[in-house]
Structure formats: C-alpha cells, structure tokens
Amino acid sequence: MSKTLQAIRGMNDILPEQTPTWRYLENTLAALLDGYGYKEIRLPILEFTELFARGIGEGTDVVDKEMYTFLDRNEESLTLRPEGTAGCVRAMLEHGLTGGGQVQKLWYAGPMFRYEKPQKGRYRQFHQMGVEVFNLPGPDIDAELIVLTWRLWKKLGLADAVTLQLNSLGSSEARARYRDALVAYLQERYDLLDEDSQRRLTTNPLRILDSKNGGTQALLVDAPTLHDYLDEESVAHFEGLKARLDAVGIRYEINQKLVRGLDYYSRTVFEWVTDKLGSQGTVCAGGRYDGLVTQFGGKPTPGVGYAMGVERLVLLLETLGLVPDELNSPADVYICAFGEAAELAALGLSEQLRDALPDLRLVVNAGAGSFKSQFKKADKSGARYALILGDDELAKRVVGCKPLRDDSEQQSIAWDALAEHLAACLKQA
Ligand code: ATP
Ligand code: MG
Q: pTM, whole model, 2 decimals?
C-alpha cells in the first residue's frame, strides 16, 4: 500500500471547526483598524532572498537559520516571507508611497514561514496580523499602536491575560555605543558564556540579553545597562510614550533586556506577553524602525509597527474559554423535499427565501432520502426549523414548518406567506 500523504511538519491545516475562531479574531481586528483609519495592504508571499537578507539582517536567527530559500526555474534565489515588514517597505519604495513625507498607516494579514522547531505556539507556517506606519516620528503614534492592541485585548476579553513589556533601544548611534560596551564587558568573560551567546558576541550581541541560559543571565546582572547609553532625544521620546500610556491607563513593565530579534529596530520596542501559553508567550511584538527604509536605499523615513501571532491568540482564546458560542451557531432552517417535483419546488422556494431574507441561513437537503433520514439530518444539523415539502404540500402550495428545538406543533404555511412567517419566528428567539 502506498504511504498516505501528510502535511509538512509545522504546517497546519486549519479545520472547519477552528476557522470560526480565526475569522472572529481577524474580523474583530480588521474592524478595529478600520475604525482608527488604517488601510489594508496585500503583499506577495515570495520575495527575492536579498530583500530579507538586507532588511532583517545577517546575524539574526531568522536570516541565518529560519528562512525557506530556494532557486526558482530561472535560478533566482527566492524566499518565502518570514515576516511582513520588509515586503511592506519594499512595496512603499516601489510605488513611491512614502516619498515627500506621505503618511501611511497600513495593516496586513497572512501566512509567514520560518524553519523552526515546531511545538505548541511555534510553527513553520504561521500567521500574523501586522501594522506598519510610515513618516510619523513621534511617540504619539507609538502610543496609538499600543492603545489599539490594548483595545483589541479588551474586545476579546484578554485584557487580564496579557502584560505589556516596554523598552527603548535609543538611536542607532546610542545602540552602537551600548553594543560596544556590552561586547567589551562580555569579551572579558567569554569563557563563561554559553555557546550560542559566544557566537552572538560577533553576530548580534544585543540578542545575548535575552539568552535563556542561567549562567549567561547571571553574568548579565553586572553588565552595562542600555538606558545608561540612551541619547537625549530617545529619552524624551520614551518619556512621551510612557506619558501617553499613563494617560489612558495602560500598565507596562520596563524591560531593558527586551531587544527584539530583528536588526532594524530603534527607540521603542514592545511585546505583549501572556503566561497562559507556556514558553511561547509573546502574542504581539513590535517597535520603531527608523533606519529600515534607508537600508533599502530609500530616503530617511520613520517607521513603526508590530505583528501579532494569530495561532497564539487563537490558542489563548481557546485556553481561556473566550470563543463566543454563537460563532458555531447552526443554520436557521433545513429544507426536506420528497420526490423529484418537490425537490424542484424546494430549490425555487429556497432561492426566493434567500432573496427575501438575505441573512437567512438555510440548508437545502442534498442527496434525497426517505422522510426519516432527511428529518434526522435536519435535526442533526442543529437548525431551528425544518421545512417539509412532499406531494401533498406541493398540490396545496404550502410547506410544513416544524420547530425542531421545542415541542410546538408543525404548521402548514402557504408559499407566499413563508418568508414573513420565518422572519417572525426567527425574530422571536
Ligand atoms: P519568538 O521570540 O517567539 O520566536 P519572534 O521575536 O521571532 O518571536 P516576531 O518576528 O517579532 O517574533 O513575530 C511577531 C509575532 O509573531 C510573535 O510575537 C509571535 O506571536 C508570532 N510568531 C513568531 N514566530 C512564530 C512561529 N514560528 N509560530 C507561531 N507564531 C510565531
Ligand atoms: Mg523567533
């Protein structure tokens, strides 16, 4: 027997029982972003590899270890996008959308790909919903992005399940000065570092700050601290952000070791974290990347954004029992028809009902069957009413309307009164 085909490890099917939760999350966020004046952008899933190598940076885990990269038939190196920001910046430059200081407030959603070790909350194909804003340099917009996510948590009932971690990385010059000081300090203690951190000391030293290694963390206690190196403007920016968060009552924890994995951040960085999902606890992460556009050869363009992990948020909603019941509500009406003439009439009738009641959720029995079997299917569907159409009903131009969720009697309703009758019945519940 041939081996049954399976999906690639870490690439999940999202089954019909799960998609309502996904849509609930996506629709809630999309409506919210719309309400704040953000516009959707849709970007390709494949880009030239160089885009990510340049945009995310060599020395990051994503570029060094996690990308799905291959040569196409034309021998060009392409990569399945591991994140959305680089492609978004590419699109801005390609279409001239950020030139002349034009403000852009954008959002996107879709699959991302990283070759990681699959586990709960960490997959190889995963989904993000992200936001990017261009040409607004001040802390007001950093605050707006955080306020927006906070409103999402409140809408979803997650406000008590997540906490905000906040940091400022300073200007790229300040960050470079700090990096030098940190490297000098750690270089003297090189032999005490874990192997990963030894490697990072040359490739991406700031990343050592969030090492999970106990020995390395112990070394870091006396290491130089980032905020001693912040430039004045970045300090003012950070104060401006905190004042705004205080003004709306968003609590945060300042975490000087929060540096984010990607190279292009400057000043504000933040993460929303939960302790309800084990070690994959970051559900939303972002920050300011004022240097990124120039890295792509564009004019200096302030940028700030974040991405949230859809799988992790879905898991969180499920774990906390916050998926609204009505997401899985069944159809309103199920039509059973017996015999060919009745089937034809039922089809015509169902289309008239859909015209008259656009929100009606109506299932027409398919595959014929005896009275008993169709009625069983109607009941099992969870519908609130069964409509019954046989030869007798056909002759009288009526249908039997049987409530399925209580004991009330079946009624005989004339075809042209049916829409009104159903509308009244469904309104009652
Ligand atoms: P982590 O530290 O968890 O690897 P990251 O810093 O690599 O996260 P980002 O690149 O900032 O993550 O992506 C933003 C968000 O996307 C994360 O906070 C997380 O919610 C989600 N995410 C990232 N990688 C994965 C993955 N492999 N599977 C599922 N969700 C992910
Ligand atoms: Mg990662």
A: 0.92
